[in-house]
Structure formats: C-alpha cells, structure tokens
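ugh ok fine here u go
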Amino acid sequence: MVGQPADTLYYGMASGSSQDDGNHGSIKSVAVAAQILEALAGSGGPMRLAELSRQLDMPRARIHRYLKTLRELGYVSQERNGERYWLGTRLFHLGQAAMDQFEITHIADRPMHELRETLGQTVVLSTPVNGEALVVAVVESENVVKISVRTGVRLAIPNSAQGRIVLAYAPPAVRDRILGKLSVRSQAETEARLEIVRERLYEFSSGEMLGGINVLAGPLLGDGDELAGILAIVGTTQDVSETPHAIAALQTQAARISTRLGSDAYDRLKE
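structure:
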C-alpha cells in the first residue's frame, strides 16, 4: 500500500455537552461553524485557538465554544494538550459519502479503466484535500503481481508525484506554509520543480513513497485551470517509467477528464 490511511491522522473525540452561540440565531451559528471548519481545512495543518481568532476576527471565547461542540460531534479533533485543532474523522466519512456523488469520480471512471487497459498498471484518482492528495478511486491492475492502493489514503507532500501536483496548484498561503518547513536549498529546488509540473502537466516519482514503486501522475483541471484531481499510474520500477508512451497515454485520459471539467489546458500544451 502506498501512503497512510487518512483516519490515522486524527485523535478520538471527547464527550460532553454542546453549546449554542448565545443570542445568535441558528443560521448565524451554522455560518460561524462553517467558517471555522473552512479555516481549518485551508490551513494546511493544525491551528491554535489564537490563530483561528486572528484569522476569523472573532473573540477566542466564542470560537472556543464552537470548537467544543464541533469536537463533541466529531467534526474537529483536538491535540491531547488542548493547544491545537484540526478536522475530525467524521468529516472524512462525510467526505467519503460526498465522493460517491462527486462528479469527477463518475467522469474519470471510464478513462481510468481505459488507461489501465492501455498500460496494464494500477490507476489511481486523487483529489486535493487540506493541501494533500486524498485517494478517492482505484482501478487495480489485472496482473498477478500488482500494486494495491486503498481509497482514503493520503499521499505525502512534497514526497510524492501526486503531492507535488497538489502543491503546484495550491493557494500561495498553503504552498508557503509547506515549503517553509524545508531548507532554503530544498525550497528553491521544490519551487523550480513545481513550475516544471505546471508547464509540462505531469510529474514522476521513483521510490519516494515506497522503495521499488514508481508513480506517473497528471493534474485534472477544471474551469480556470483549478486543480480538481490527479490521475496517476502506479507500478513497480520495471513496469512504470517516464517514457513518451506512458506520458502520452496518461495525458490523453487526463485531457479527456479535464475537458469534461471545463479546462483546455492539455490542448494548450500542444500549441
């Protein structure tokens, strides 16, 4: 298996009683809760109460009441020492249910099967979530020896082909946050590589996530060239490589999906 199951990234939820937001109406309360969840989702990592307060321009006490209720419901998880918060596992399960209705999984289904038939390797569809690549669909190789990837797995950034594609199209704040954890030299090298990803519309990794496993991936772009997903071929170093044939097969299907999503980026690549 490549990557790490998403549900291992979260702690369990504490129990307790919920609280409303004083004199604010229910619609206002839902809006505030949504703002908190969106701030956590866009942060690229756990956030402290003070950070949420500054970003949302709300009093700490008010945000803390919402976090308490969201934690009790499983929508937010809290660090054991109570200092930092991030999205909870219940949102992952809701997300999985949403994926069943998600347009890209239906649009990509046939192209994924055709890509598997063309190259004979496992094909993986991921979507960007919280600055990571979340596997949402897999069409496994029919070979006796094959690479198995489970849905729900999150792929590391920047140490995976899919992860670097997510990073290449991520909002500047998320990209800067992740790159800021690297050395100055690594930052420069990664930024240069991300620019190449955007120019050539594919990325390749060899043995980064797991020794002996190669990944060739391409972005799936929607309206305004916003990243909607990543299509990838996964196999052994003998079976998956950065060859013109493999790149062409991948980009043919990635272009097909992207066109359905509203982007002509792959057509522009040919100009």
